Amino acid sequence: MAAIVFDLDGTLVDSAPDIQAALNDVMAEAGATPFDLASVIRFIGGGIPPLMEQAMQARDLPMAQHAALVARMVEVYGAESTERTRVFPGVIAALGQLRGQGHVLGVCTNKPEAPARHILAALGLAPYFDVLIGGDTLAVKKPDPAPLHAAFAGLGAEVSLYVGDSEFDAEAARRAGVDFLLFTEGYRKSPVEALPQRARFDAYEAFPELVETLLAAV
Ligand SMILES: O=C(O)COP(=O)(O)O
Ligand SMILES: [Mg+2]
């Protein structure tokens, strides 16, 4: 039996279109032009404060407004975070299979806890998870290892696996001393080889078997 913790954005769900819509609403209110999806995807990974910082730099907005625009983004995104967000293909079946195999599952995301909880519930993912650590659950976010430690502590299993899509996830896992499995179809910026990883996969259909193979090697 293993504890398997998943990242959320770009790993379990393709959430960038709702993040883009909220960011562009906030940019419009600030008098700035909108971002295309590819640009928004490059800003995702560190949570809302770094996303807003990068957006503001790109639009030459004064950083004195950062806290106010972050607060507005939390508000706007919090009101509409599931309209355009989709679960990646095969995720639900894979989670059911993993639970059936006796594994315990959690989520560790840099997204604030409230929208993360809402997304899990609205998209039918909540019943599979026993733990959720969000970007504002602790005082620090990934790549700090503390959120991962907190997620695994809540699950209590000897073997820990962390599944994510980004540089932030790979680094948090490395610092936490946990095996990292890279989902290659998310919002990563670097080539797959650049991220420290135990294994990688591009489709959830293959994921439960990958976990069994890794556990057999432990
Ligand atoms: O909200 C973000 O920027 C990243 O969220 P994630 O940690 O679920 O990928
Ligand atoms: Mg992610």
TrEMBL record:
Protein family per UniProt: Belongs to the HAD-like hydrolase superfamily. CbbY/CbbZ/Gph/YieH family.
Alphabetical keyword list: Carbohydrate metabolism, Hydrolase, Magnesium, Metal-binding
Organism ancestry: Bacteria, Pseudomonadati, Pseudomonadota, Alphaproteobacteria, Rhodobacterales
CC cofactor: Mg(2+)
A GO cellular component annotation in the UniProt record: cytosol
Record protein name field: Phosphoglycolate phosphatase
The keyword DNA-binding is annotated on this UniProt entry: no
GO molecular function, one term: metal ion binding
Function: Specifically catalyzes the dephosphorylation of 2-phosphoglycolate. Is involved in the dissimilation of the intracellular 2-phosphoglycolate formed during the DNA repair of 3'-phosphoglycolate ends, a major class of DNA lesions induced by oxidative stress.
Metabolic or biological pathway, per its Swiss-Prot or TrEMBL entry: Organic acid metabolism; glycolate biosynthesis; glycolate from 2-phosphoglycolate: step 1/1
Binding site for Mg(2+): 7, 9, 165
Enzyme Commission designation: 3.1.3.18
Pfam families found in the cross-reference section: HAD_2 (PF13419)
Domain of life: Bacteria
Active site: 7
Gene that this polypeptide is encoded by: cbbZ
Catalysed reactions listed for this entry: 2-phosphoglycolate + H2O = glycolate + phosphate
Any one of the GO BP annotations: glycolate biosynthetic process
NCBIfam families noted in UniProt: HAD-SF-IA-v1, PGP_bact
Transmembrane parts of this sequence: none
